[in-house]
Design brief:
Layout lengths: L1 H14 L1 H29 L11 E10 L4 E3 L6 H8 L3 E16 L2 E11 L3 H4 L4 E3 L11 E5 H8 L8 E4 L2 E9 L12 E4 L4 H4 L10 E6 L5 H17 L8 E9 H7 L12 H30 L3 H9 L4 H38 L11 H27 L3 H7 L7 H34 L9 E5 L8 H9 L4 E7 L9 E6 L4 E9 L3 H5 L3 E4 L4 H5 L4 H4 L4 E6 H6 L4 H4 L3 E4 L1 E9 L14 E5 L6 E6 L4 H15 L8 E2 H7 L2 H35 L1 H9 L4 H35 L10 H28 L2 H7 L1
Parallel strand pairs: 4-9, 6-8, 15-20, 17-19
Antiparallel strand pairs: 1-2, 1-10, 1-11, 3-4, 3-7, 3-10, 5-8, 6-9, 7-8, 12-21, 12-22, 13-21, 14-15, 14-18, 16-19, 17-20, 18-19
Helix pairs in contact: 1-2, 1-11, 2-9, 2-11, 2-23, 9-12, 9-14, 9-23, 10-13, 11-12, 14-23, 14-25, 14-26, 23-26, 24-27, 25-26
């Protein structure tokens, strides 16, 4: 019996090739979407779960206020980990981490390494990174030890055994004491090298709650200890704030705990080792995948019903010969399973081909074997069974219950299900129009981000690293670079102006405290970056001479600039601020106020910013070039760099590229939405194609009579099309407010955002109408051009 059902199913597919093609392609697209989005979501949800102690590891975050707005960060001082272990019995151990860029050398090789990690010796005890060679308990105990990954070992030593080899990091030698596997891609802690934290100068200083930039993790006794421990920490830090730190009434310092497994998708704090994902985007992608799959299933239902009009004889004869309703149901569901099975096998093949494209779209590095993960394959089988039954059940029930006399007399006429089929079309286009609108809004916001005036000119700025060896010769070096044809300006600063991380505090003479971000720089930075001064004047050589570090800083004086927000926070207008005295460790006067500029992501509003002269804090060299002959200018800079900075390789980046990287998650979301919006429209059109085919099949006699009575092609196309185009208009009316609501929610995450304009909704509706009109026209024109004599005779 089953063999017979399979034969009939195969014959029907061969007989109705167009319907079979549309069905199989539609389901294939739906399943491919689910597969690709599925491996992405599985990867996102698996972050840091490879750690055996994942349930018991927490990240400590700092929350403080110095009398003004509260500040939250993932960075902590050196004292947090050790003191919490000493104070709270539920803390088993801690590890403090810092990731920096370091120059690593071996023999004649020299590389700028960006994944250079400093860690406490407990690193391999707390985290479950695979240590191939070396003792996890002692591998980081000696201050001159270094652990490298397999990739780093291959890069520096080729196939030689790395253990015992000496790597030069800056001016210090480290002995390779351990070899680790590369960090899994689903880890927020990525590294190529690990050295003991004691190798950092600030880690050697006495323990301090404030003065460090470390990320601290705690290992707890049990996973249930997180909330009770956080309450204990808050109570303890109240005592510390008033006692040890002697903070005022409106000031505080406390800490919170983030479970390791929730950090990647649920934390919204910046400055972590890896850019955070978002659980909201995961939910959105799940919804998109399911909606596309639902559209594909709806298409199958509509196509099956449309196709059934040609099978009236077959079903009638089967009923006359005694076929029970259950047998017919099994036959049609069986056909659905055959189509689903073919689509599933095709989906695996197509998904495999599309993996490289999806990697570019998602920013991941999935391998082909990700599709053959047992969990993914199990989901695929379950998905196939659900799709096969869900898609085949409704047509099977509908076809199996029709009366024999009605079939043999006039074929099928499913007017009772007309509202259901139209509702399905409306539902499909609601999804499609929703995706069109949200995609347009996402792309508009990304365009706004790219083109917004952020208060300075980020284009054509080359960024190069600065280290301790370069600083004493920086004036001469800048002068030589400035003389290169095509170089417009040269300056140094601590941070890039797109993402100022330095947190600080300033105090006025009357004791008012304001928490600020701070940007140490040289005297040329303001001009080079083309920041606008609204009051006061530029830094000059007189200001530089005041940074006098001789005689134990006895004559040291700062020269400050504020942004407009900082001046407002202190209660001054820009003009009033000029000449005022403020202090941060050392005092100084305010020389200028610069116009507010975006020194963080556009997700954050512009806050108070302190700008001050301090050449000793420079970590970046900024070279503005004309852009007329970029390649030649870069070669000239490289030549001078190799002559004057032999201790570092020449590795540069452009400031605008780093700016774009701040919005990588949004760019990927825009790309994914654009792709799947196109797929949703394509599938919705195949659904409309199915219903149009059904309508034309049902109205063949009517169309023939109208043609005999003088109706032209346009009249017939309009007759059939108008009802379907009305459905698209209804779908637009429903989709628009839904899209507006969710897009507005998404935009609220940006402090600086676009306005949602009415024409976006109108444009989406027009696009949907045009696409739907073209789809419907294909079938209706074909029916309108048919010979009416033939259609009336066959009817």
């Amino acid at each position: 019996m089953i063999k017979n059902y399979l034969k009939i199913a195969w014959r029907n597919l061969k007989k109705n090739r167009l319907y079979a093609f549309v069905n199989i392609i539609g389901l294939t697209i739906g399943i491919v979407s689910c597969l690709l989005i599925g491996i992405y979501i599985k990867h996102e949800l698996s972050y840091d779960r490879f750690n055996q102690n994942a349930d018991k590891i927490v990240r400590v975050t700092m929350d403080y206020s110095l009398g003004d707005a509260p500040q939250k960060t993932v960075l902590t001082g050196t004292k947090v980990g050790p003191q919490f272990k000493r104070t709270f019995p539920s803390v088993v151990d801690f590890v403090r981490l810092d990731k920096l860029t370091r120059v690593v050398g071996y023999k004649n090789q020299l590389f700028d390494e960006k994944n250079f990690l400093y860690a406490d010796p407990s690193f391999f005890k707390i985290f479950s990174f695979n240590l191939i060679e070396g003792n996890a308990a002692t591998v980081l105990n000696a201050p001159g030890n270094i652990v490298i990954t397999q990739t780093a070992a291959k890069k520096y030593f080729n196939n030689e055994d790395p253990i015992g080899k000496i790597l030069k990091v800056g001016d210090h030698n480290f002995i390779v004491s351990g070899l680790a596997s590369d960090a899994p891609s689903n880890s927020q802690v990525q590294f190529d090298f690990i050295v003991p934290l004691g190798a950092l100068s600030n880690a050697k200083a006495p323990e301090n709650w404030w003065n460090a930039n470390l990320i601290t993790y705690l290992l707890l006794k049990t996973q249930d200890a997180v909330k009770p421990l956080e309450k204990q920490i808050i109570a303890y830090m109240k005592t510390v704030s008033t006692g040890e730190l002697k903070m005022g009434r409106n000031q505080y310092l406390t800490y919170h705990l983030e479970p390791l497994k929730s950090v990647h998708l649920h934390s919204n704090l910046p400055d972590g080792f890896e850019p955070n994902g978002s659980i909201v985007y995961v939910y959105i992608l799940i919804a998109v995948a399911l909606l596309i799959l639902i559209i594909a299933c709806v298409n199958y239902v509509n196509l099956s019903i449309a196709q059934s009009a040609k099978r009236s004889g077959e079903i009638g004869i089967r009923k006359v010969l005694g076929a029970a309703r259950l047998q017919l149901f099994k036959q049609f569901v069986g056909e659905s399973f055959v189509v689903t099975a073919i689509a599933s096998f095709l989906a695996i093949s197509v998904a495999t081909i599309l993996i490289p494209f999806f990697n570019k779209l998602s920013g991941k590095q999935f391998q082909y074997n990700a599709l053959f993960d047992p969990f993914i394959l199990l989901c695929l089988i379950a998905l196939g069974i659900i799709i096969g039954f869900a898609s085949g059940a409704y047509p099977a029930l509908l076809l199996s219950r029709v009366q024999i006399v009605k079939i043999l007399k006039s074929g099928f006429s499913f007017t009772s299900g007309q509202n259901v089929r139209r509702s399905l079309i409306v539902f499909q286009f609601i999804i499609s129009i929703f995706l069109i609108i949200t995609t347009v809004i996402i792309l508009q916001q990304l365009s706004y981000i790219s083109n917004k005036d952020i208060g300075y000119n980020k284009s054509n700025v080359v960024v190069l690293p600065v280290d301790n060896k370069m600083r004493p010769q920086m004036d001469a070096f800048k002068k030589v670079i400035n003389n290169i044809p095509g170089v417009v300006g040269v300056a140094t600063a601590n941070d890039e102006p797109i993402d100022v991380k330095w947190g600080d505090n300033i105090q006025t003479k009357d004791g008012k405290n304001v928490t600020v971000n701070a940007l140490p720089m040289d005297e040329d930075f303001i001009r080079t970056m083309r920041l606008k001064i609204v009051a006061g004047s530029h830094f000059d050589q007189t200001d530089v001479l005041q940074i006098d570090t001789t005689n134990n800083y006895k004559n040291f004086r700062y020269t400050f600039m504020l942004n407009e927000s900082a001046a407002r926070a202190l209660g001054w207008t820009p003009q009033q601020a000029i000449g005022k005295e403020i202090s941060r460790y050392y005092g100084g006067r305010i020389k200028a106020v610069v116009k507010d500029f975006n020194f963080k992501s556009l997700h954050d509003p512009i806050g108070p910013l302190l700008i001050f002269l301090d050449r000793f804090q420079s970590r970046n060299l900024f070279v503005r070039i004309s852009g007329a002959n970029t390649s030649s200018t870069l070669k000239s800079i490289e030549k001078i760099w190799k002559e004057r900075v032999p201790s570092r390789p020449f590795e540069y980046k452009f400031l605008d590229e780093d700016y774009d990287a701040l919005y990588r998650t949004e760019q990927r979301t825009g790309g994914i939405f654009s792709t799947f919006s196109a797929l949703a429209i394509l599938l919705a059109c195949t659904g409309l194609f199915a219903v149009t085919a059904f309508a034309v099949a049902q109205r063949t006699k009517e169309i023939g009579i109208r043609k005999v009575l003088g109706a032209n092609v346009f009249n017939i196309v309009l007759l059939v099309s108008k009802d379907f185009l009305l459905l698209v208009v209804i779908a637009s009316a429903i989709a628009s407010p839904i899209a507006s609501y969710f897009s507005g929610k998404w935009l609220q995450d940006f402090a600086y955002r676009i306005n949602i304009h009415w024409w976006i909704f109108l444009a989406a509706a027009i696009i949907a109408l045009i696409i739907a009109g073209l789809t419907v026209s294909f079938q209706t024109i074909k029916a309108a051009l048919a010979n009416p004599v033939k259609s009336l005779r066959s009817e």
